[in-house]
Amino acid sequence: MTMNEELINQIVRRILSDPALQGLLQGNLSPAGDRAVKSQALVLLNYVPDFPRVLTKVQQRWGANYTLNVLPSDQVYTANPELPLGMTWITAQDALSKSDWQKLILPTCSPNTLAKAALGIRDNPICEMIGRGITEGNSIELVMEYLGLTAKTPLAYKELYEGYIQTLQSYGVRVCANLEDVTFALNPVQQYPTHPDQQTSVIDEQKKTAAYAECSFKPNEIHFLKKFLGDKQAYGFPEESRVLVKQGTVISPLARDTLKLRRIELWMEKEEGRG
Question: I need a surface site. Which of 36, 42, 194, 214 has the fewest CB within 10 A?
Fold first, then answer.
């Protein structure tokens, strides 16, 4: 009897969450009697402990303009949280078979998903959808609040993930601090507080790191002074700048890719002057 009740409840929830029925219930009809069709958005949902809050905020923020289809991670699928009215589950097969998603939403982006998306790793359905969305130029919105970075997180570790965020922004992904904040972050390094014992801002601290200490700056032109230029240093340069290195400087292949990705010109200085 309990099993039958659960089956009936699932059927009822599926019927009530159908977009066509929602249009009828909300009186969302055109004068001709046709249902007004919303754009289709795909919500890529990782596991979090506060599903009711997250799903409610997602519905409030995007539900008025989009029909929300939720692709769960394996952990979410196991947890099976109840979706708000108007949101529906979608299988990986159905999500991947559709190529014209108007928007991709990552409301609970995890550090693992963030890193894979920035590095182009597509080893699960969620990362595959992100990769496809970036490749096809889809509108993608990412929420940072579940990355888990805190005031006690070491600065170097924050910089690692801030670099991933900056990479995704260079791909066209829109990033915001939390589900309540509708303002998109243009400079994610300002989103995280420093340790209470530190009196300077994160940006001030960054200027003390090797990426700045190894360079001398002029407007849109940077003279790199060290003998090795790695990916970490490449992320420390402003986008669309020009970096001049001395002859004999070793540049890692990953750093070259990062410089190209961030539209940074690399020039070799001659011994008697600039290259």
Answer: 36
CATH fourth-level superfamily of 38-191? Flavin prenyltransferase-like (3.40.50.1950)
**Domain residue spans of the chain:** 38-191, 210-269
Residue 190's pLDDT band (cuts 50, 70, 90):
very low
Q: Which position has the higher pLDDT, 266 or 237?
A: 266
Q: How many Cβ atoms are within 10 Å of 86's Cβ, its own excluded? A: 20
Q: How many CB atoms lie within 10 A of CB 17?
A: 17
Give the containing element (helix H, strand E) for 271.
none
Q: 20-63 pLDDT, tens per residue?
A: 555 555 544 444 444 457 899 999 999 999 999 999 999 999 99
